[in-house]
Amino acid sequence: MAKAVANKIAPTLVERRPVLAGQELSVTGVTLAVLPTAQRISLRAPDASVAALSKALGVTLPRKPKTSTAKAGRTALWLGPDEWLVIDEAGKDPLADCAELTVLHSAVGISHRNVAISVIGPAAAATINSGCPQDLSLDAFPVGAASRTILGKVEIVLLRTATDAFRVECWRSFSDYVFTFLSEAAGDAAA
Amino acid sequence: MLLIRCPYCEEERPELEFRNAGEAHIARSADMAATSDDDFEKFFFIRSNPKGIIYERWRHMHGCARFFNAVRDTVSDRFLLTYKAGEPKPAKLPGAAE
What residue intervals traverse the membrane (chain B) (predicted)? Predict the structure, then answer.
């Protein structure tokens, strides 16, 4: 007990208030929810560094377009030929895992930059498709598929987590727009 | 909506994800200081603006974010071919014989 007290960090003056925290919306066929905060990095690296980075992160960085890989609460999304978004929901900062590496790479912590919204239900694809022009059928966008794309007027990163579930990652300042857009769309998709 | 094939994503994607980035295959002089004003004007300002086949740079802005080159018909707005940045101008276009 004494040790725990000794390790206690001094109370911070700044309280973290995640935007839209805990907001939810449930209509027939779709449920929207703002997901809890997660650790994220934007990772860029040449081919030669991919193996070492995969080992350090504990998740194999995908090499095929529009794919993602996941292991132990950590997901790596292919965004471009040398660009990945790594999301950790288990509370371990992937930035720290890259810090010791000497291979050429650029890892930027963007945990606070993004907000994730889950869209779940039989009408999830229809909801997202009201603002996203990509083909979201299971043939073209199977479970695990991930892509940077657009929703309405803003850029999002879309990940299909299950046949009827998506994770929408958007920038923090756009999150109000995205959540409102999806809420309106959910009503239409359910109708 | 147009579907444009991104050579990096290896599939056709909706045009909203793309941005045009001007004419392709315009090489910058290696020795810009020695370039005459007339040559610089041609390099910097003068574009071919053809009616028909044009070679353009496009960027998959809201996708993989990569620049690539595309061959487009300015009359029909049809994309004949897309290829990665840095690759030479294709010698033969699909359907060119027609």
Answer: none
